[in-house]
Target: RNA polymerase sigma factor
Amino acid sequence: MLDKEIILKTCKPYLKDNTISIKDFNNLYGMLNTTKKNIILDILVENNITLIDENNKIITNIEQDIEDKFISNFDTFLEISKTKKEENNNEDNESDSHSSNEEVENDEETPRIYELKNKQYKILNKTLCTLVQKGKQEAKEMICKKNMNLVYNIARKYLNYYNHKLEIDDLFQAGMMGLLKAAEKYDKKINTAFSTYATFWIKQSIIRTILDTGLEIRIPVHMIETINKVMRESFLLDEKNYNNNEIIAEKLSIPVETVNKSKYLFDCILNTASLDDELGYEDTSTLKDVIADKKAQMPEKIMLEHKLYKYLIKILDELSLRERTIILYRFGLKRDNQTLEEIGKKYGLTRERIRQIEAKVLKKLKAKAKKLKLEDYIDGK
Model:
């Protein structure tokens, strides 16, 4: 807890006409963080003591003062950083190093700016946004480096978004473009954290990139939005009502034909295996390889797997969309298998609800398999 009396007593020798310079203020309290400095400043203001900068301008907020100085001296700061880097790469040039150090010490503002360089990742996003909006290329690089983890974590969540073919690096680059878009548009007056504001733009940029370049058949963005709404309503409905497209159309206030089209696009394009996907375990051939060579003699094993695959598709087709999709993701039939929690988040359902659906579907699949006598194929009969 800061003691008011001690603060006033400490400042008294430095007062001139009830004002104290920022230089003297920093000499007294430079070791404290910005929050505590602002508390001290409030105490001074309450006692009619004014803090002024080197141009006799009144300072009302320490953080804002640092930001203003950083922005106004940004080019100087970059030049000093460049000079310092060159000195570190030329340790033998002692005379140049000594001259540069003297230059730094003689400039009252330079030490503060140079100190910020050493703590560049503590520079506020809103400060960097201001510089980005002023066209400073270096600020763009700094804000990208500062927010790399944010962009990467968001990009990683879109690896299984529909059935796209983009890699994590592609999604990351798209996210970075969204981050820079956010920096160009951010207004610190809206009183919203930059990371919260930027998340929207990062997600939008990633999704647009997936839809524009990641799908084998391009679907317009407005149609994707409709498909998302239709499929969400489909999953929320009970299984017995899934095929009742009239209910979905009524809820979304769209034609039944649009619901039918959305489900068709989801099933046939967004939720299907690609021709480039490998056939399966210990077989690196793709569906495209098999289809392209009509004269190729397929081994007995592939024939057997093909029959089993046909039966599997036949069984899965008798499930509701929600049941079928959960099984596909749960057992790795679509890329890597996913946990109950991951599937639940994807469809807005609890982990326990997904487990219940899985148990119900497995019981149903066992009955179907027995009915179709799949044991004969498994045993090689």
About this structure: Residues 340 and 352 are 8 Å apart (CA to CA). The beta strands are 19-21, 50-52, 278-280, 283-286.
